[in-house]
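Bug #77: duplicate submission created two jobs. Keeping one. Sequence:
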Amino acid sequence: MKKRLRILGNIVIILAISIVSILNYRELRSKLIQSYENYLANVTSFFDRALSHNIEKSGSTDDFALIDEADRTKEKSQAELTKESNHEDNLVNQELLEQTIGITFETFNVLASDLRITVMDETGKVLADSNFPGDKLNNHRARPEVWGVISGEESHSNVRFSNTESVERLYFSARSSHNNMIVRAAVLMDILGNAGSTITLSSLVIGVVALLTFNLILSLLFKKQDKHQADLERVLAKIQSGDLSARMEEDRHTFADYHKFAENFNLTVTNFEQDYKEMQAGRAWLDAMVNSLMEPLVVVNQDLQIVFANKYAKTLFNRDIDPEENPYPFILLTHEDKLDDLCQKVFANGKTVRKEFQLQVTGRYNAFQVMISPVDVDHVVVLFNDVSYEYEARELRSSFVANVTHELKTPLTSIRGFVETLRNRNNTAPEQVNNFLEIIDVEAARLERLINDILRLSDIERLNTDSDLEDFDLVELLDECLVQLDEQASEKQINLIPSDDPTFLPVKANRDRIKQVLLNLLENAIKYHRKQGNIWIDLKRKGRFVTIKVKDDGYGFDEQSAKRVFERFYRVDKSRSRILGGTGLGLSIVKHIALLYDGEASVKSIPDKGSTFKVILKI
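Kept job's structure:
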């Protein structure tokens, strides 16, 4: 804008000065030509009067008429005149013309030193000239100023370039009152050229001064505008970078419009800053509240893209991308296209929907009750209520009931079958009766162990902290358990090898609970071990935690079984477990006792290489 204004202003000034200069030059030329025409008219008029006076003094008009007599009428020759006398008469008349021209020059040459006077007959033949010999000049009939008079005009003027003198002259021709002669006077136009140069020089000086003045004024105006513009750009750049404290300079010495603009701009920014701070405070409070939710929450737009996700949603679904800056498809978060369909349904009817889904999270599947509610016409909020524990509890309860029913039904069915057989013992031998009674006793004992394990597990699960705590030596308790299981291990030729270190390990806990852990781990290792093997037992303390490690070189099991071995009623080999009299709850009891003491239970196993069970207890 400034550049265009500067260029346009300079062009206008140059055009204006050029036009004024041209008009002045034309006006000056017109006046100068008119002045010269008047001057030359006086010259020709004076010449005509001076010629009349000289003719009267000479007393002979006839002699003057003979100047061009030989040319105008060759047939009219006088026999009585000789060529010599005719030449003398012409010289006399030529002298008369030259004398008259001289008188005219003396009179007018003071005003114009470049004056030229030419006398011609009515055919354009030059009779006399102030600057050149007449016989050296060609016929001037074709000259515009001469032809105009020949054509009948009393006088005629013309500005043209003289080929004879190679200069520009103003020519003025007039008819003389003597023998139709034509008198022409001319002056140089060099004064007009000098005037043009003067006007051009003056125009250049005025133009330069005008351009300098214009550009100086424009620069002063633009300087304030540039300063105002730079200040505005500086403030806008700071605001764009997030600095809302930036303000424009309110210069009272600048233009009123700029000052008023700066005041209004600063007031607007101040109001915007206040509103922005309030909005940021509300946003921070809302973000803090939403991010404090321990439930995933996302906002989805109509394109089914996530535009907001709280902190827990990013963590749980392992998505570090900020959707506010880079929205991404909803299905990339959930991997469930049915949720996209539900979102479209909510957009369509504007009603909240709830439904349970199992969704993949970091390394596992969780059960969620998903609630989708409309926010506005373009967005819905999706809340994932994690019901994995409830879902798992339902599954566990269902599985527990099914497993307990199965585990109770099997011995009860066996007992009832043998009882029915004994009722009809007329056909049963005494040895067979004793065998049946022994089987009934075994099944009853198994049933008793199952019930006791269920009661123990139930008792442990309902407790937050254990009771009946006492101080005892864990090494001594381990020796007691080894003695108790020595006969069972000897039957399978298994060596129970405790660690030599430590020899004394004081702990504080419920002694019966810890004994259950040791017995269950050792019995499990003995039962599911091949004949002739080793079992190593290691006890260590690290800080407030005690680690119990039981390692064997038995059959081992695969990774999938290792993940489930602590579940209720889970058996790696169900047939062998029932033959050995296992209830399937021993390791589950170990796990829950470990949880009761703020610890954990884990296992590492390699098929055909053995297993290592590790229990950490805070005792």
